Amino acid sequence: MSAPDDAMSAEDRLIARYFRPLAKHPGAFGLADDAAALTPPEGCDLVLTTDGVISGVHFFADDPPDCIGRKALRMNLSDLAAKGARPLGFLLALALPGATDEAWLAAFAKGLGEDAERYGCPLLGGDTDRTPGPAAVSITAFGAVPHGKMVRRSTAKSGDCVLTTGTIGDAALGVLLRRDASRAAAWRLSDPMTAHLKRRYLLPQPRNALADAVLRDAAAAMDISDGLAGDLAKLCRASGVAAEIDVARVPLSDAARAALAADPAVIDTVLTGGDDYEIVLTLAREKLASFHAAAQAAGVAVTEIGHVTAGAGARFVHLGKTLKFARPSYSHF
Amino acid sequence: MSAPDDAMSAEDRLIARYFRPLAKHPGAFGLADDAAALTPPEGCDLVLTTDGVISGVHFFADDPPDCIGRKALRMNLSDLAAKGARPLGFLLALALPGATDEAWLAAFAKGLGEDAERYGCPLLGGDTDRTPGPAAVSITAFGAVPHGKMVRRSTAKSGDCVLTTGTIGDAALGVLLRRDASRAAAWRLSDPMTAHLKRRYLLPQPRNALADAVLRDAAAAMDISDGLAGDLAKLCRASGVAAEIDVARVPLSDAARAALAADPAVIDTVLTGGDDYEIVLTLAREKLASFHAAAQAAGVAVTEIGHVTAGAGARFVHLGKTLKFARPSYSHF
């Protein structure tokens, strides 16, 4: 790898300066080739996922740039975790508007690089373009599972327990608070509660520490990106089963609980708003104890929230009634 | 896989309608999971590449939508071909503006699907977003090479011949014609010549038929996306060598030759304009005959245009003089 020199284009210099330090994987070839090479672990399948963020859609233009890079990577890490896969690396496609803001780019790359280290998911390569539109970050991440063992959505069985990691609805409430600060008072939130919900939108906490346990124990799993209600409905549809969820058991943060106490209609946002990046999974009851033990060892909260039955659809039961949602799932169209 | 139903979001319906038919690979799970699974061919490395197109940057908003999908895929296929890799599949990240134009989407998906079949590169998964900006298509493609054998940029050796596939500069002239139709008269182009250059911009011809020969014979290779001059300079820099190119030997279409005869300054656009999606490669002289035979069998034109020497930089020699380029390589920044 030669040092940046005058014969390099401005694009190549940006890549060399901000992204080459992240490309520690030998198959990234220092970002100085057309493509990356990845030697799959023996006996493993590659798990492939792609997810991106667009300014004004998935993040606010004035969000801290280090969080934008982290969020884009974590959304993909969350998919890998839900599939029981260990991260191997990622590709970055970056579209940047107008004049290059090098301070923005430096902070973006720093956040991304720190998370790549933290989650053991190095940058393998990418593509950088100028766009007349808003900034957009698209990431493709690669993970490994033993051959044929990727945890699917379509393999839930009647009688399974339904569990979720973490707490549900925080990010969806956080984005409402970002759009209308007066909601904090309406929901009687303390400042730390408000900050918690906003932070949960800004920076998901993917549950990769739980991936091995998901791989071992889950019958079916997916990550919650479009809301628990809609995503669980997708899992049920793919599996040809129904699920019944006890809304009172859905794990909530203190902040979400406070908002819900002030305005019970908030339950709709909590269950359908999305951006949770938690894992919803089903497993056979006899695996419950071992899964709980593994989750405790991994430091990830998991909560049983319902069960799988024969039939179709995900029913959310609250005080004896089945909730009806205005829009069960986040949709871009 | 269940049929589209009322519980599906509009986004899921779009995916099911237009893209599920393209997802014929078993590891795509009918696009009904968070991720795809790919079993790597035994003894092979995965070759990973990502490249995208943005409306107003890489294509015109009124380009035929089937060509936009094809171009995005072919740009990535071209990278795989230059690395000696056989295609395995691709992921699609699509950002669409405003109201969904279903006729546009249907044509886009049809073109993409036809090329996926033609090149043996099935859709594995993807991500669909609404954007406030222009339409953007980002593709990540996967190929396979025998372990450790990906053809690199950094392995050219002094004494190697330099070759290129196809013809150079057509697409860069085609985009100038799209921007200013009066150039066709200034360059004294016939209508078929004008059409040829525009078509070369609209629809690259990736040289995947040559991938096995590149893998077997090339010392170093890359695909030409940012212009022959700049891309060959990158290859030289990565390899720590120089190259001397005889401009008179650079293969040109009849149309490019006519434009050059009318305006010799066009040579700059031909050699630095980019969007060629041809392969520039170096190989040891003793492999020249077998490579030419393989290229002929594959039906891909290849032309020897110069040689690798000690030193640094790619020199383009024309009528005894080394050309100086205003901007040797296409750069987004």
Spell out the blueprint of helices and strands:
Two copies of one chain form a homodimer.
Chain A: H1 10-19, E1 36-38, E2 44-54, H2 65-82, E3 86-97, H3 102-118, E4 123-131, E5 136-146, E6 161-165, H4 170-179, H5 183-186, H6 191-202, H7 211-217, E7 220-224, H8 228-239, E8 242-246, H9 254-262, H10 266-272, E9 278-283, H11 288-298, E10 302-309, E11 313-318, E12 321-322
Parallel strand pairs in A: 3-4, 8-11
Antiparallel strand pairs in A: 2-5, 3-5, 6-9, 6-10, 7-9, 8-10, 11-12
Which features does this protein show?
333 residues; homodimer; 4-stranded mixed β-sheet; 7-stranded mixed β-sheet; alpha+beta
Task: Please characterize this protein's 3D structure.
The structure is a homodimer of 333-residue chains. Chain A is α+β, with helices and mostly antiparallel strands and 333 residues long. Helices cover 35% and strands 25% of the residues of chain A. The first copy, chain A, has a 7-stranded mixed sheet. Chain A has a 4-stranded mixed sheet with strand order 2-5-3-4. The first copy, chain A, is globular and about 65 Å long. Chain A is built from 11 helices and 12 strands. At the A-B interface, helix 1, strand 1, strand 2, helix 2 and strand 3 of A face helix 1, strand 1, strand 2, helix 2 and strand 3 of B. Strand 2 of chain A pairs antiparallel with strand 1 (36-38) of chain B, so a sheet runs across the interface.
